[in-house]
Amino acid sequence: MEKIDVVMLAYNFSEELRLLTETAIASVRKTPMGKLIIIDNGSTVGAGNLRELSDVCVVNKTNLGYPAAVNQGIALAKSKYIAISNNDIRISSNWVEIANTLFEMDPKVGSVHFKMIPYEESFDVKQDAWIGGKERWCHCSFFVIRREAFQGYDEAFGAGGYDDYSHNKRMRDKGWKQAYTNAVAFQHMDSITYRTMEDKEKRAIRDNKNREHYKDVFGEYPDVQFANEFPEQMQVDYTKGWE
């Protein structure tokens, strides 16, 4: 079984974020992972702890944004498969084994995605897996990517937003498949860093700017493009039931 390096991004500017990050670190450390690579995007609280808790730590003087930090972390990872993790998650302990299994099932599986649940919901994993057919379920708050499938995150998205859609679209266009499974689950605090670092109006402006950038690159808005590419999936409210 291949060990998987974990790239975790952090921008801790409050005690709550520091504690969430340390909880996320403890969660992945309990699993048979490879190295933990932390990209500290200009934290003002608990930055010293991140260096102590990681195997590799990059400290950016300012927040370079999510896409740039992902690219930094992937460049430092050495494993065949690499996990990209938010700092507000907790993951079920079987994720390394399940990710390996799905990658081995099909050499064109480029990324493996897991069931996302609310932060306080108990882990209720099942045994289902899909290679293709569940792309709308493929969240990127914690996922694993095959090194050669990584397309690089578009740093024009700035702080982040729509960058994962862009990456996954470019990956699929290269012939790579996305796998989804409910045999692994991760608890997620719902992008707490973004929600607390800026008010709703500023985030809406950033999201709209990034949505327009996506259209400039691909010719259509992501929701329109997704509906054209996966019409059956768009008929399902995936926020209810979570498979």
Looking at CATH, which topology would you report? Answer: Spore Coat Polysaccharide Biosynthesis Protein SpsA, Chain A
Q: Architecture in CATH?
A: Alpha-Beta Complex
State the name of the first-level CATH class: Alpha Beta
- Count of helical segments? 8
* Tally of strands: 9
Weakly predicted, low-confidence segments: none
Structural class: alpha/beta
Largest sheet: 9 strands, mixed
| Helix and strand element order | EHEHEHEEHEEEHEHHH
Helix content: 25-40%
Let me know the CATH homologous superfamily: Spore Coat Polysaccharide Biosynthesis Protein SpsA, Chain A
| Total count of domains | 1
Outline type: globular
Strand content is 15-25%
The pLDDT mean sits at 93
**Radius of gyration, whole Å:** 17 Å
